[in-house]
Specification:
By secondary structure, the protein is of the alpha+beta class. The protein is elongated and about 140 Å long. Helix 1 packs across helix 13. The protein is 62% helix and 8% strand.
Length: 368
């Protein structure tokens, strides 16, 4: 029986083992070789500095306005009257019922980013002496008014007066564009820490005054929106009870004069006739009934006012933006440093890649 001859079988070479030490030595050798081209590296660093500094001055300056505030959770609208009634006896149902509403929890984060509130804020006056709105200032700052005026589709001056209530379809679309640009790029609302109640709102815009005013007024608009919607039912109840109280007060005053007049007639009346006594009794009874109803109305009115106070949130501003605002432009020294590092590192890496590529090419040629 013959066996195959394996003496001439070609054996495959084993792969070289990976060694971190060898790779480090190769990298250092390549780096030393690359550093020999120091003139190119220096030229790349200078070019990086020029590009970095040019970009620093070319990029528009933006100013950041930051406001930090704390929101105290209010009582629920369904238990406001109960809390007010319990408060008459020295009890507090706040810990039992808990807090909810527009400004409770993380709802404030979404509320401050709503399109309607941003639109209302943009349509407020820059100052009290002019009808110019924040939307006008925004469009002027970003040179959008010139762009709209020179465009073939619009081709006219667009203004957003603060006292204007109705806008055209075109003006509404442009306002929506401003709002979306603010939401996407210039407005950040977040909690500083999930365990804390501090909320930070930051606006970054190219106009220092615009950034500061918009940041503060957006918070003011959100607070006003909450008070208007959250306490609307209680406000209507207070107005209704106040109207009833005023009407009862006038009737009670008339009944008081009528009772006093009846008592005076009773003193001068002939004891034989009973009519003056009956008239005085009826006047006294009507006065007592009116007084009782008036007292209950006043009690309910005060309870509703107390409930309204409890429903109104307490927003405490911790840090407000102060002029001058910090700008987002990087300092000149850091710009020079970053440009030099980027240019030199990019040049060194390029030289190392080219050297390794040439070395492998020479190895393949010699092996062939």
């Amino acid at each position: 029986m013959q066996y195959p001859d394996n003496s001439h079988t070609q054996e495959l070479p084993e792969d070289a083992l990976f060694s971190l030490k060898n790779e480090s030595e190769k990298f250092l050798v390549t780096l030393r070789s690359a550093l020999q081209f120091w003139r190119w590296i220096l030229l790349s660093a200078i070019l990086g500095i020029v590009i970095s500094v040019a970009y620093r001055y070319w990029k528009p300056v933006a100013y950041s306005a930051r406001i930090t505030f704390v929101v105290e959770d209010s009582k629920t609208s369904g238990t406001g009257i109960m809390s007010a009634l319990a408060g008459q006896f020295g009890l507090d149902l706040g810990n039992v019922t808990g807090g909810s509403g527009v400004l409770s929890g993380d709802n404030i984060l979404a509320l401050l980013k709503s399109h309607s509130l941003i639109r209302k804020t943009l349509l407020t006056q820059v100052d009290s002496s002019a009808t110019k709105s924040l939307a006008d200032l925004y469009a002027e700052t970003y040179h959008w008014k010139e762009k709209w005026k020179n465009s073939s589709r619009i081709n006219r001056q667009i203004d957003f007066p603060a006292d204007k209530r109705m806008f055209t379809r075109l003006e509404d679309s442009l306002l929506q564009k401003i709002t979306e640009n603010i939401l996407k790029k210039e407005l950040v609302v977040a909690k500083i820490d999930r365990k804390l109640s501090f909320i930070e709102m930051q606006t970054t815009m190219r106009n220092e005054t615009l950034s500061s005013l918009f940041c503060q007024r957006l918070l003011k608009t959100a607070t006003g929106f909450y008070i208007e919607t959250k306490t609307q039912r209680l406000t209507k109840n207070i107005q209704r009870l106040q109207a009833k109280a005023d009407s009862l007060e006038r009737n009670l005053n008339r009944k008081t004069y009528s009772a006093a007049n009846a008592n005076r007639l009773l003193l001068d009346a002939n004891p034989v006739f009973a009519a003056p006594e009956v008239s005085a009794e009826i006047s006294a009874r009507d006065k007592f009934v009116q007084s009782t109803i008036y007292a209950e109305i006043i009690k309910n009115l005060e309870m509703n006012k107390t409930a309204q106070i409890q429903e109104t949130p307490t927003i405490q501003v911790v840090d407000a933006p102060e002029l001058p605002l910090p700008d987002t432009r990087i300092k000149l020294g850091w710009s020079i440093l970053y440009g030099a590092l980027f240019g030199s590192i990019l040049c060194i890496l390029s030289i190392m890649v080219l050297q390794r590529s040439n070395r492998r090419k020479n190895t393949y040629i010699s092996a062939a």
